[in-house]
Amino acid sequence: MIEFFTILCANAFRMGTPLVLGAVGEVYSERTGVMMTAIEGVFLAGAFGGLVGAFLTQSLAMGFLIAILSGVIVASAHGWICVYLKQNQVVTGTAIAILVAGLCAFLFRVIFGVPLMPITVTPLRELPIPLLSSIPFFGRVLFSQNLLTYFMFVFVPLAYFVLYRTSLGLVIRSAGENPEAVEVAGIKVNRVRFFTVLFAGGVSGLAGAFYSIGFLGMYTDTIIGGRGWIAFAICFLGNWNPKGAFIGGIVFGFAEAFAISMQVGAGSAIFPNELLIALPYILTIVLAITRKAYNVPAKLGVSYGIEK
Amino acid sequence: MKTKTIDFLLFNIGAIFVGLAAAGIMLTFLGENPIRVYSLLFTSVVRDRFTVANIFVRATPLIFTALAFAVTFKAKLFNIGAQGQFFIGCLVAVGFSLYLEGFLVPGVGLVIVFFLTLLGGGIYGGLIGYAKARFNANEFLVSMMSTYVALGVSDYLLRTLLMEARGEYPQTDTIQFYRLPIFVGGTRLHIGFIIAVVIAILVWVMMYKTTLGYRIRTVGQNREAAHLAGINTKRIFVIVFFISGALASLAGFTEVNGASYMLMRGFNSTIGAMGIGIAVLANANPISIIFVAVLFGTLIEGGMILMQVAGIPHSIIPLMQGFVMVSVLISYYVRTRVATLREKHRLQKAVGI
Amino acid sequence: MENPYVELLHVSKYFAKVIANHDVSIKIERGKVVALLGENGAGKSTIMKILYGLYRADEGKILMDGKEAQITSPREAIALGISMIQQHFSLVPVHTVTENIILGNVRGVIDRAASEASIRALSDKYAFGIDPNATVASLSVGEQQKVEILKALYLDSKLLIMDEPTAVLTPKESSMLMQFIRDFAAAGGAVVFITHKLKEVMEVADSVVVMRGGKVAGTLQKEGTNEQELAGLMIGKDLIPTTGGGRSVPDDAPVCLELNGVTLQNKGEVSSLEGITFQIRQGEVFGVAGVSGNGQLELCEVVCGATRPTGGSLTLNGEDITGAGINERIQKGIGYVPSDRQRDALVMDMTLAENMMLKSIDDPKWKINGLLLSERKIDRLTQQAIEDYNVKAPGPRAVIQGLSGGNQQKMVLARELISGERLIVFDQPTRGLDLGAIDLVHKTILAQRDAGKSILLVSTELTEIFALSDRVAVMYKGKIQGILERDKLDINRIGLLMAGYHDEEEEAASV
User: Residue C437: pLDDT band by 50, 70, 90 thresholds?
Assistant: First the structure.
C-alpha cells in the first residue's frame, strides 16, 4: 500500500509538471490582462515541435528547444491578434487552436509522409539525484524525477520571485490591473502584454513537449486531449499566483496519476475507466463552483488602446 | 450605414480568400499545385446532386452548434461546451429512438425524440448557466470541462447500456424507424436541414423581435444598466444557457436521426469548435450563420473528396478553416481601422479648407 | 527676450469623430501657474496629453527652452521633467503606495525598504502623512491624489500638469492643494492647472488660457480679468444662472418618500449607510450634498431598489417598499438618473430606440398584439422623445454612443421622467455636461417639481444644490450630518458638515 502510494505521489509530480509549467505561464499572461486561450494549441504545437525536433536531430535538448520555439510562434499569433489587433481573446484562442490542430496534423504528413513505422524517440529518463533520492518516500517522490520536473521545481519559486520582487513583475502585475497607470509611467502596456504572452507561449510549448518527448516518446493528434485547458483552469483556480498554480498542478497531476494507476490496476473493476479519465475535468467543475475567485486581474480580457 | 454593410461583406469575402490562399501555400509543401487543388475542390463538390446535397447535410449540425455559441455570445457569455451538449443530444436521441423503436408512428416518435433531445441538451447547458448565476462560476471553464465529462459519459454508455446487440464495437445499433425523411431523392439530404434553417430564423426573431431577445442583448451589452432596469440577469444566464444547450443538442438529433442513424465513439468530435468559428465569421447573426455553415460544409465535403481522389490529407479541412477564421479576425481589425481613418481624413479635409 | 520653459505652437489633433484641438498655442513659464480653463470637451485634457506624450499631435510642435522637443511617449516627457496627474487617477488600487510610485522607475530586484524610506521622507517633507505601505484602495480619494503628487515629486518633476484636481476634494482639501501649488511654483516649478471652475482660476493662476471647441478662445493674465470675462470666453455667450429653485413646501404636503434608519452594512466591512432617516414631501427637491464616495451612490441604489438595506425601512406614499425589487419600484413610479450614465443608465452600443425601452420592456406600447416588438411603434415613441427634449441625433435608429454627453443625458431624462411618476432620483445629473445642457437639466428638475413629483437630488456641486434644493442634507461617511432648511443654507456650515464636523446648532435643536 505504501509502495502504491509512493508511486502515486511520484507520478503526481511527474504528470503535474507540464500542468504547473503551463499554468504558471498562463498566470504571467493573465496578470498582464491577456487570457492565453490558445494554450491548448500551444501545448499541441510544443508536443509536435518537440517530437519533430528530437526525431530529426536525435537530440532531446534540441527537441525541447524547438518545442519552446513552436510555443512562442503560436503565442505570437495569439498575442498579436489579441493585444495589437484587439480582438476577443476567447474567440481568437479558439480559432488558433483549430488552426494549430490542422497545422500539426498537416505538417506531420509533410515531414514524415505516411510512415510505415511509428515515429518514436526515447523519452526523457528519470534522473535520481545521488543521496537525496535515497531518502525514504521523499527520495522517490521528489528526487527520482526527470529533468523537466527538476526544472519545474526551480522555475516556480523563480517565477514567484520575479512576479513579486522585481520591477518587471511589478509592471506585469500593474498591466492587468490598471494599464493606464503603466502607460502613464512611460511603459508601453501592449509591448508588456505581447512579450509576456510570448513568454507564456515558450513555457507552455515546453510543457506540451513533456507529453511527446518527455513521457510517451511519440506524437498523436490527440496527445494533449484538453490538458492545455486544464492548465488554463489551474491558473484561475490557483488565483493567478505561481504558488497556487503549483499546488493546483500537483493536485491535478495526482488526479491523473490516480486515474492511470486505477486503469492499470484493479481499479477499473470498481470505477468505469471513462469516469477516471474524466476525473480532472469533473474536479475543475467542482472547484470552479466551490472556490471563490479573488485576485482576478481587474482588466483581464480587456484590450488596451487609446485613440491615436 | 450602407458603407458599413458593403465593408462587412467585402472584408469578409476578402478574408475568406486570404485564408484559403494561406492554406493553399501550405499545400505546396506537399508538392501540390494549390490552384489545381482548389479548382478540383470547387468543381468536385458540384459534380453531381448527391455531392451538392451532402454540403447541406454537413452544414446542418454546424448551423446548430454555431447558433448555440451565438446565443450566449450575444449575452457576452461563452458556451465553449457545445461539443458536449451535442454528445448529450446524440445520446438522448439515439437512446430514445432505439428504446421507442416500433412503439410509435415514425412522425410522432420523431417529434417526441426531438423534444426529449432539446430538453436533455437544454438541461445540460442550463446547469452551466445555473452554476454561473448561483455560484458565480466561470462559465467559460465549466462549459469547456463539461464537454470532457459528456465525452466520458458517452464513451461509457457506448460500451455498456447503448452498446450494439452484437457486442463487438463501442457503437449503437442502427435506428430503423425514426429517421428524418429525405426530401431530395437520390441524396442524403434530410429535412434536418430545413429544421435548422427554420430554427435559425426563429432564433433571429427571438433575438431581435421579442423582449426576451432584447433582455439577452441588454445583459450582454451592459450588465449594470440591465440590472438597474430591473432585468433579472441571473435568470437570463440560465435561460441563455438552456437555449444554447438545446440548440447544440439538436445537432445531435439531426445527425443521429437524419444522417448516421447510429452513434459510435469519436462521433463528429470537432463540430463544437467549428460552430464557434462559424458564429464568429457570421458576427453571431443567426441568418448569416446559415450561409457560413454552408461554406464550411463545402470545405468539409470538398476536403473529403480531395482525400479520396487526390490523396490530400484530411487535415486540410481544419487547416482551411483555421486560416479562414484567423484571417477573418485580422480583417475585423483592418475594417474598423479603415473606417476610422476614413472618418478622420474626412474631418481633416473639412477643417483644412 | 528669454525663451519660455515650454511652448506649444499651433498644435492640432484630430480624432475619428471630433476635432480635439485646432491650432492651439500655449506658453508655460517656470515659477508660474497656468490655468487651462474650459468646458467639458473643450480639448483641455487632450492638449496636455499631447504634451505628456500620451497622444501624438497631428500638426504643430513643442518647444522647450526654445528648442524643439520630440515627445512621443510619457517616458520622454518624464525624462524632460514633465508629470501629469490624470483626472481619473492612474493608480493600481490593489497595490501599495510604494509599488504605485516606483512603477516604471526602478530596475531589477526591488529594494522595498529603501523605496519605502525615501517615499516616507518625501511624504513627511510635504506633511502629506501618507503611509508608503498602505494599499491604495484603502485610501480616501484625497489621499490618493497625494499619492499621485508624491509620484511626481519622486520623479523630481519641473512641470506638474493637474487635470481637474479639485473635483474629488472637500473644500478644505482643495484649499490645501491650492497652497501646495503656490508653494511648488514659488520654488521654481511650473504648473498647468486644468479646470472648468472660474473661482479656482482666480484663486491660483498667474495666467489663464481659455479653451472652447478645441481652440484657444483667449490667453489672459489674471490681473486685468474677472470671472465674467472668463465665463464669456469659456461659453461664448453670457451666462444666465438658473433661478426659481428653493421654496418652502408646506408642512401638510403629503410625504412621498420616507427613509427610516436605513443602514447598509456588508459582512465584515464598515457600513456604507448608517441610520439614514429623512422624508421627502410631494413637490419637494431634497438635496444631498457631500464629497463623493460618502455613501451617496449607495443611498440612491437603496432608494431605487438595486441594493437591499440591511436595516431600517423605506416607504413610498405610505406603502412599505423595503422588500420591493427594482422592477417593482419602477412600476410604483421611481425614476433614477444615475451619476455614471454610460455604465448604469445606457447601453452604449444600442440605438436610441432600444435605450428608450429599457425601463418598461414589457409595456404593450412597444409591441404588436402584445407579442412581438414593433419597430414602427418604438421608433415613433423615440422620435417623440427626441423632439420633446430637443436631442441632437440623426434619428431613433442611431447608436447612442455617437451622441454627445449632453444629448445622452437628455435621452436618460426622457426615459426616467416617464417611468418616474412619483419620485425621481438624480445622482450628479450634470456631471460632465456643458453649460447649455446643465441649464436644461436644471430647468427640467424644477419643472418636474412643479408638476408635483418629489426629487432626490444628489450632487457634489454645491452651486447646484443651492440653486435647486428646498432642503439640504449633508452626507459624511454614510451618515447624514445634518439637514438644513432652505433659509438656513450657508456655505461655511455645509463645508464643515461635509468635512465631518457636527453642526452644533443642529445638534442643539435636535436634543
Answer: confident
User: Is the CB of C104 less than 8 angstroms away from the CB of A182?
Assistant: yes
Low-confidence ranges of chain A (pLDDT < 70): 265-269, 306-308
How far is residue B63's CA from residue B247's CA, in Å, rounded to a whole number? 9
DSSP label at C295?
Answer: S
Q: Shortest CB distance from A181 goes to which of C84, C90, C110? A: C90
Out of B29, B148, B151, closest to residue A110 by CB: B29
Is residue A295 situated within a structural domain?
no
Q: What is the pLDDT of residues C204-230, one digit of tens each?
A: 999 999 998 889 998 999 888 888 888
Whether C474 contacts C482, CB under 8 Å: yes
Name the residue facing A184 among C55, C56, C74 (closest C-beta): C74
Q: Domains (ranges, CATH) in chain C?
A: 6-235 (3.40.50.300), 255-343+418-510 (3.40.50.300)
| Helical (H) or strand (E) element with C288 | strand C285-289
Closest residue in A to C57 (Cα) is A308
Residues of chain A that touch chain B, judged by Cβ-Cβ distance less than 8 Å: 77, 81, 85-87, 90-92, 94-103, 105-107, 109-110, 226, 229, 232-233, 236, 272-275, 277-278, 281-282, 284-285, 288-290, 293
Positive or negative, the CA dihedral B327, B328, B330, B331 is positive
pLDDT score recorded for residue C15: 81
Amino acid at C81: G
Mutate to test the interface with B, among A26, A96, A99, A100 (most CBs of B within 10 A): A99
| Interval B174-180 mean pLDDT | 92
- The whole-number average pLDDT for the span C400-410 is 87
Question: What ipTM is given for this predicted complex?
Answer: 0.90
- DSSP string spanning B78-121? ----HHHHHHHHHHHHHHHHHHTTTTS-HHHHHHHHHHHHHHHH
Given this model, what pLDDT does residue A268 score?
59
Chain A positions in Cβ-Cβ contact with residue B317 (cut-off 8 Å): 102
Residues of A in contact with B319 (CB under 8 A): 99, 102-103, 105-106
Q: What angle do CA C499, C502, C505 make, to 5 degrees?
A: 130
Q: How close does chain C come to A165, measured CA to CA in Å?
A: 6
Asked if residue B348 has pLDDT above 80, the reply is no
Q: Which of B210, B227, B228 sits opposite C372 (nearest CB)?
A: B210
C-alpha cell, A167: 520591477
Q: pTM for this structure? A: 0.90
Q: What is the pLDDT of residue C503?
A: 60
Q: What is the pLDDT of residues A244-279, one digit of tens each?
A: 999 999 999 999 898 888 877 665 567 788 888 888
In a domain, A269, yes or no: yes
Structural domains in chain B plus CATH codes: 59-312 (1.10.3470)
Residues of A within 8 A of C107 (CB-CB) are: 167
Interface size between A and B, measured as CB pairs under 8 A = 136
Residues with Cβ < 8 Å from A130, sequence gap 6 or more?
none
**Cα–Cα distance between A27 and A35 in angstroms, integer?**
9
pLDDT digits (tens, 9 = 90+) for B81-117: 999 999 999 999 999 999 998 888 888 999 999 999 9
Chain A residue closest in CA terms to C73: A186
Distance from CA of C380 to the nearest CA of B (A): 16
In whole angstroms, give the CA distance from residue C282 to residue C447. Answer: 13
